[in-house]
Design goal:
Blueprint: H1 2-6, E1 25-28, E2 33-36, E3 39-40, H2 41-47, H3 50-59, H4 65-78, H5 83-91, H6 98-109, H7 121-146, H8 160-169, H9 175-188, H10 195-205, H11 210-221, H12 229-240, H13 246-255, H14 273-289, H15 293-308, H16 318-328, H17 336-356
């Protein structure tokens, strides 16, 4: 009885446990608010660009015009990959998952960074920009290689999001579509101390190098309970196939206590503000393509889940409609999570740099509940 009374409170999933102070990202789950450095995500989605948000997250403020042009130029100049990294991508196993390729490539390319062994704040800031720039090129390049298509070099005259779509699809996107990808990257650029950011922070607390912290983040993001949810959400829509079949399919799923991918969030108790933006983009793309079947299935799923689980306050998160948008923009389904990763790079690096300002090795405890004082039995005497 005494052991039970002495047992500490176990915070499963580390719910409500704070690991650091931050000025990077604020989430109000009750009111559905998301702020980057104090700026509302809806304002950033309406007026800003991915390059500007990269500057904001890393520098802590919005740039002036000259600073923004410089940031754009730096990202564009850093997008090309070293020849050895291109060789690595060509040598990856056939049918290797893109997230595995991205994780491996980031680890490998650290050896070619000109400031690999420089751990100063200024050098890490420059490395953060290079990592952000090169993740997009890695994903696009591997996509072309695995499809047997000609690899396209980065075009420094294009914006980061627009050039990514061009390198993936082989053609320069319509300006409206390019803007949608740009906003999608803005929406995914940061989200506080989520699992992948925490993974990066754990690695950072050991004073591992910046590239290693991003490898840790990518490995964490890969899981279906985190970044992989985007693929599962589109898969659900494709499985249902007809809007009129959605309600019965989802009701049965809920009755069987199955989770619906793209719904619910550990933080939000109302609509994820990012989901509302992506939903509107999904509607616009469906309209422009002249086929709204997937969108009508998705909205039917949303109406059913929200209605059936009203008491639990379960709403769509950003992943639910993102898959529809990426799909319409010509992005392969298994690239959805890598797109998440290349968009989140500035957030990951910003949190790592912030943690290093007051670094402490992360060393949580676990409460032992196994046997004690067992007598060792020699091997030949064991049953």
């Amino acid at each position: 009885m005494k052991a039970a009374l002495d047992a500490p409170e176990i915070h499963r999933g580390l719910d409500d446990v704070y690991v650091k102070e931050t000025s990077i990202c604020f989430i109000d789950g009750e009111r559905g608010r998301l702020l980057y450095r104090g700026y509302d995500i809806r304002d950033l989605a309406r007026h800003s660009s991915f390059e500007e948000v990269v500057f904001l997250l890393l520098q802590g403020r919005l740039p002036n015009r000259a600073e923004l042009e410089s940031a754009r130029a730096e990202l564009a100049a850093a997008r090309p990959l070293a020849p050895s990294v291109l060789k690595l991508l060509r040598s990856m196993p056939e049918h290797a998952p893109p997230m595995d390729v991205l994780r491996t490539a980031v680890s490998y390319m650290s050896g070619f960074d000109p400031e690999r062994d420089d751990s100063t704040q200024a050098a890490n800031m420059r490395k953060a920009l290079r990592i952000t720039a090169q993740l997009a090129t890695i994903v696009a390049t591997y996509e072309r290689i695995r499809k047997g298509q000609r690899v396209l070099r980065p075009d420094p005259t294009l914006g980061h999001a627009e050039d990514f779509v061009r390198m993936v699809t082989g053609k320069r996107p319509d300006p409206t579509w390019a803007r949608m990808m740009d906003v999608a990257m803005v929406l995914y650029a940061d989200h506080g101390m989520n699992a992948s950011t925490f993974g990066a922070t754990v690695a950072a607390s050991t004073r591992a190098d910046l590239h290693s912290t991003i490898v840790a983040a990518i490995a964490t993001l890969k899981g279906p309970l985190h970044g992989g949810a985007i693929e599962d959400a589109l898969g659900l829509v494709e499985t249902i196939r007809r809007p009129e079949a959605a309600r019965e399919f989802i009701v049965n799923k809920l009755r069987n206590k199955e989770k619906v991918p793209g719904f619910g969030h550990r933080v939000y108790k109302t609509y994820d503000p990012r989901a509302l933006i992506m939903k509107e983009y999904a509607r616009q793309l469906a309209e422009s393509k002249g086929d709204d079947t997937y969108f009508r299935i998705a909205t039917a799923i949303e109406e059913t889940v929200v209605g059936e689980l009203a008491s639990k306050r379960i709403f769509p998160n950003v992943d639910f409609y993102s898959g529809l948008v990426f799909h319409r923009l010509g992005i392969s389904t298994d690239l959805f999570t890598p797109v998440f990763a290349l968009s989140r790079a500035p957030g990951w690096t910003a949190h790592v740099l912030e943690y290093w300002e007051d670094n402490r090795l992360l060393r949580p405890l676990d409460w032992y509940v196994g046997p004690k004082d067992l007598a060792y039995v020699p091997l030949d005497e064991r049953a």
